[in-house]
Amino acid sequence: MKRNLLLVLFLCLCAWGKAQVMEYNITLKSPGNPAETYNLKLSNGAMIANTNLPVDIRQEKVNDSGNTFRIRTIITAKETVYYNLEEIYKLADNHTDCQFYMPGFWYHRNMRSPKEAPSFKTSDSWQVREDRLSTPLTGIYNEKSGDYYTVTRIDDFEGEALTTHQTGEVILSGKTSIGFTGFRNVNGKTALVFGFPYAEAPKTYLRKLTLAPAVQAFEKLEKGQSRELIWEISKGNATSYSTFVADVWNYSYNTFKPTIVQTQWNTESSKKVLSNYFTESYVDKYKLKYFSGVHQRTDDCKSTGIAEVGFVGRVLLNAFNALEYGEQVNNTDLVRKANAIFDSYLEYSFTANGFFKEKVNYGNGKEEEIFSIRRQSEGVFAILNYLDYEKKQGRKHPEWEVKMKTILDNFLKLQNEDGSFPRKFNDSFKVTDASGGSTPSATLPLAMAYSYFKNKAYLESARKTAVYLENELISKSDYFSSTLDANCEDKEASLYASTAMYYLAMATKGKERAHYVDLCKEAAYFALSWYYMWDVPFAQGQMLGDVGFKSRGWGNVSVENNHIDVFIFEFATVLDWLATERNNPEFAEFSNVIKTSMLQLMPIKGHMFNIGKVGYYPEVVQHTNWDYGKNGKGFYNDIFAPGWTVASLWQMLSPDRVSNYFNVKRR
């Protein structure tokens, strides 16, 4: 029977059209001594070495459904043993013909990332611990043939263990369910590599732009104990890398079937708690009045002297949130504070050429002199929301309208012929970073400005950005450099690209609108790929695990910044809209996962989750073996920026905001 199973496995591999070869290695460690690696051969379902080993290893293929099958491996200790198992699935494809994918961490060859972060600039072979990834999966895509292969870890993922070291050979303090996955160049041919427990090579990524020597973990099995491991290998064909990512997302969703996270929170209760941030963070002792939301300590949340228009501060969007909410609940104090912010920014926040003063640090008396299309766009975005709201309340602000026309006209001057915007520049329009990765952030206010001012020049500019986004980001599946504290592959570039097309669809009709819907969907798959399908495990003593935190629905940030956060803004609304527009119910289902999961860490009295004040929602959620320099997995960095987290969740909790702005009825 076992010989028949092996024959079926061999015939299945041959049926896939190319010869695949499995290689197996087990590394055993005796405490206090260097580990030793043994090559294994599969014979009649047993994995054996050329010497007697203190373990019995059995493997079989199960759940064969044509192009997908599972490898089930059982390791049983004959005596106390410390082990690490590696399996290599060698393909016939040339490594140089292939692009690679580890969701939420690796896209193509990560060549947008610096050499200090994981990328082909350091090595063409990488394996990482599974909790770095939004799905514990590696995919290899052959650009020439269109064939792709994935390996996915199947487990309950219930355990994690602490270690005393982060590099080298480490013995786990207890049981973990975290293995490793990756890809390898084997003599010019490509291979999927996977195993258990985790092992990272050629480097491990400890903190921002800090690669360290490789790590290999060893799990202890007592005599008679067993460990069952299951991986699923799948094959498919896609016409492009973009289609490959979409196919794998759908496959992953159907495999993991993430469900909503049950919490006590709804829109009303969430906004009530978050509004305390507006109450307590207000600063009025400088020319610019603002909600302090940048560079605060998590333990005390004391206000700082930094006023930031967009990115992590989001002062103006939060001023609009406070105004709208204050009037809804008759909180005159919030209304007063919001209006004071708008009045101060109207008077003091503009440069000689009409740009926003993006970031003013009253603590050291300095102002940011290099501007970004992202922060400028987010400032205009907030003010246009404010102006539209005020107009609908019968209140007009002609001075603000003049300021917005000036800055929008500045945008037109900055835009390149190909439709892109430079990432960074100064008040004299001198470009200091020509990268176009942040371009989609400008699409939103340009589409909004067309709707508000009825000026077709703004719509034409937004359309030009769409041409650039389609040609350079979406068609090339190359989303990069949107976040300002990293210059690499990142979630926000794809999320902004998808949202940009959503806004253009709101502002257009007919075939043009339909084209933007299609582009919105294509970019949405890349944004979705950063969001977790599963719940990573934590060890006892790691706060996030102790409070029962579930990672599903949270998004990884970038290759450089390997943590999860609540950056969502309108994207959940976009997913709900796409679900209707393109009859894709999975988008709406996963949107519900996001909308419930992202409210888990709402800090209220008795459930503060290590945050110093009620409503100051956490930012840097460190879910894997990576940190900004403080605390590590299961905790936050000690410094955070609640300004943007509150703004992001508030936008998520206001799903009618965009359709109301464009006077488009939601279906």
Keywords:
667 residues; alpha+beta; Beta-galactosidase, Chain A, domain 5; Glycosyltransferase; 2 domains; 17-stranded mixed sheet; three-stranded antiparallel sheet; 16 helices; disordered N terminus
How would you characterize this protein structure?
- There is one protein chain.
- The protein is an alpha+beta fold and about 675 residues long.
- The protein has 2 domains: about 1-255, Beta-galactosidase, Chain A, domain 5 (Distorted Sandwich); about 265-660, Glycosyltransferase (Alpha/alpha barrel).
- The protein has 16 helices and 31 strands.
- It has a 17-stranded mixed sheet that branches. The protein has a 3-stranded antiparallel sheet with strand order 21-22-23, with no helix packed on it. A 3-stranded antiparallel sheet has the order 24-25-26.
- A hairpin with a 4-residue loop joins β22 and β23.
- Residues about 1-15 have low confidence and may be disordered.
Q: How would you summarize this macromolecular structure in one to three sentences?
A:
The protein is an alpha+beta fold and 667 residues long. The longest helix is centred in the middle third of the chain and has 20 residues, at 373-392.
List the helices and strands and how they pair.
Blueprint: H1 2-15, E1 21-28, E2 36-43, E3 46-48, E4 55-62, E5 68-77, E6 81-94, E7 98-102, E8 106-108, E9 126-129, E10 137-142, E11 147-154, E12 168-171, E13 180-186, E14 189-196, E15 199-207, E16 210-221, E17 226-237, H2 241-256, H3 267-281, E18 282-283, E19 290-291, E20 296-297, E21 306-308, H4 315-329, H5 332-348, E22 359-361, E23 366-367, E24 371-372, H6 373-392, H7 398-414, E25 424-425, E26 431-433, H8 440-453, H9 456-474, H10 491-507, H11 510-529, H12 543-546, E27 555-556, E28 564-565, H13 571-581, H14 585-597, E29 621-622, E30 635-636, E31 639-640, H15 642-652, H16 657-661
Helix pairs in contact: 2-11, 4-5, 4-6, 4-15, 6-7, 6-8, 8-9, 8-10, 9-10, 10-11, 11-13, 13-14
